[in-house]
Amino acid sequence: xxxxxxxxxxxxxxxxxxxxxxxxxxxxxxxxxxxxxxxxxxxxxxxxxxxxxxxxxxxxxxxxxxxxxxxxxxxxxxxxxxxxxxxxxxxxxxxxxxxxxxxxxxxxxxxxxxxxxxxxxxxxxxxxxxxxxxxxxxxxxxxxxxxxxxxxxxxxxxxxxxxxxxxxxxxxxxxxxxxxxxxxxxxxxxxxxxxxxxxxxxxxxxxxxxxxxxxxxxxxxxxxxxxxxxxxxxxxxxxxxxxxxxxxxxxxxxxxxxxxxxxxxxxxxxxxxxxxxxxxxxxxxxxxxxxxxxxxxxxxxxxxxxxxxxxxxxxxxxxxxxxxxxxxxxxxxxxxxxxxxxxxxxxxxxxxxxxxxxxxxxxxxxxxxxxxxxxxxxxxxxxxxxxxxxxxxxxxxxxxxxxxxxxxxxxxxxxxxx
Length: 418
Hints:
- Strand 1 and strand 2 form a beta hairpin.
- The chain starts with 6 loop residues before the first strand and ends with a strand.
- A five-stranded mixed beta sheet has the order 3-2-1-4-5.
- By secondary structure, it is an alpha/beta fold.
- Helix 1 packs across helix 2, helix 4 runs antiparallel to helix 8 and helix 11 packs across helix 14.
């Protein structure tokens, strides 16, 4: 087999150690040397020096949790061509699983050009990605504390969640503050309502009539304190994201022209996939990386599974959320596509397909540096007008309606008889 990289190395990375194998090919033969290094910063620089001493040009490592990142950052400074391999793609033969064998196997695969590198964004993009992911996690935790407050209110038989839309809105917070302060009279609690509510005062009073104990007040106060801290952190992260957004600002602006894509959604998309989409050879390659296409699982000519692959979970999640929003955008191509797919494939598959379509649009928009151009809700009817007419004619005939077609140069007229 042809040697693609005569001087390369394979690294088996663990939390406390790195097993490195340097493979040097000379003609038809190849020599290998294996060493083990600790994962301290000093040891990693020693690893980099050893690889430079052996004139290594390419280095491959597996994406093992978070442990590969410090190794990657140090070796990146050494000027090596780094490849991050998916562990499922470079699995060794059964019965030969040792750290040394794994490192030698990686080096051998790399030497013959058999390693497909995973996408690793630039350091600036990684930092932006870390911020958006942290913000998302805090928003989720904020929602969890909100549900815990609602659970505590239900335990006290306070049914306020049934008469106001948001228990952390102005009225909801005022009710909670009064409850924590020790107020128990539902008539007095109802006086804390802010603005106009859909529910009548009688309904609000009855919803606030419950059995509140000191334990409930203490629990609600603890959750409110956590929510306040989370809201402060979310605001700080959002501010920092805005400051770090300068290199992405033009791209984010383009992405917000897609129906269903908000400013925050655009920030997440840009941070997860980067703004240099030429890293992906085509729009379909980007969709595959994101895990929004069916997996290949066929045997004996039969498709055994059409489930989507794992892919980039953070990007997939935000695209599916954007697809739900786009499916409700009136007079849009995406809404028409959703209803067209939903009729044939069901709701969930239609949403995933819609998210994939949006991601394809993202690839072309960032490649061409163009805004989104909506094809309109009538796109499919205009594209296949005759086919649609023939399908509807056939449906009418199936229903027992006699159809007399009168085709004219300016269009088609139908005469229906019972």
